[in-house]
Amino acid sequence: MIQHLLSAADLDAAAATLILDTATEMAAMADRDVKKLPTLRGRTVVNLFYEDSTRTRISFEAAAKRLSADVINFSAKGSSVSKGESLKDTALTLQAMGADAVVIRHPASGAPHRLANWIAGSVLNAGDGTHEHPTQALLDAYTLRSRLGRIAGRHVAIVGDVLHSRVARSNVLLLNTLGAKVTLVAPPTLVPVGVGAWPAGVSFDLDAVLPDVDAVMMLRVQKERMGEAYFPSAREYSRRYGLDGQRMRRLPEHAIVMHPGPMNRGMEITPEVADSARSTIVEQVANGVAVRMAALYHMLGSVK
């Protein structure tokens, strides 16, 4: 059993594969008339979101409800947080209310790790600052495996705003654990300091990388986290690092296009590519529910 899921590094290959295999079984429920299991009946899952979210919050809520858990959605806006309540005091309140698991999204890197020290229940990191987003990496891995048959030996290019991307960090860790080769492609200004220690290669030339990959994962340019200019203009960024139809045709025939969402259509990816048969963007959203069901199942399902 996994107590917490704070980082993709928490999972070895066996644990990650177990979650992916379980997600396959959970996904099969979509074809059933009754899409619920009694596994987490009587358990309480709190969605503790200090940042706005659509896909992740709804995905976790749907996952918990399909496992018959009671779900409490907590938004920082309109709560005591807006009055200055600390994360620790909020955690102690949730602890007193008997939360079995807390799904947290927070603007501060490391917040889920702090929370795990304050409550007895399980903590799932749904994104902390620019640090990590492990369940996004799991659903991306699930999508890769579903489309390509296997992950080991595949080459994945992660392209764009790596500096501010918690998705990139978690994917690099998890894909490496599962035996894939990862190449980060970005302008020099959007490559993190210390990236040489990551288990990934780095390239500044997207066109040179595309013919050799099995999947290309485009990252959203996170303008809200940028306090200064990291590239000359949006048009220049798109010219060098955007994925358009011409670039997509440079990919091998079997290669897929991914994006964690939300997208800046026309900037890092064109509508032609986002809506193409190669795109897995909608699949990734659907797969997120099954993967998060699997994670919750292995964290809470075996606890008596």
Automatic annotation (TrEMBL):
List of residues binding L-aspartate: 83, 166, 220
Signal sequence range: none
Enzyme class: transferase
UniProt GO cellular component terms: cytosol
Superkingdom to which the source organism belongs: Bacteria
Pathway(s) per entry: Pyrimidine metabolism; UMP biosynthesis via de novo pathway; (S)-dihydroorotate from bicarbonate: step 2/3
Residues that, per the record, bind carbamoyl phosphate: 55-56, 105, 133, 136, 261-262
Aspartate/ornithine carbamoyltransferase Asp/Orn-binding domain span: 153-298
Pfam short name (any one): OTCace_N
PROSITE patterns recorded: CARBAMOYLTRANSFERASE
Subunit details: Heterododecamer (2C3:3R2) of six catalytic PyrB chains organized as two trimers (C3), and six regulatory PyrI chains organized as three dimers (R2).
HAMAP family (alphabetical): Asp_carb_tr (MF_00001)
Function: Catalyzes the condensation of carbamoyl phosphate and aspartate to form carbamoyl aspartate and inorganic phosphate, the committed step in the de novo pyrimidine nucleotide biosynthesis pathway.
The name this protein goes by in its record: Aspartate carbamoyltransferase
Source organism: Virgisporangium aurantiacum
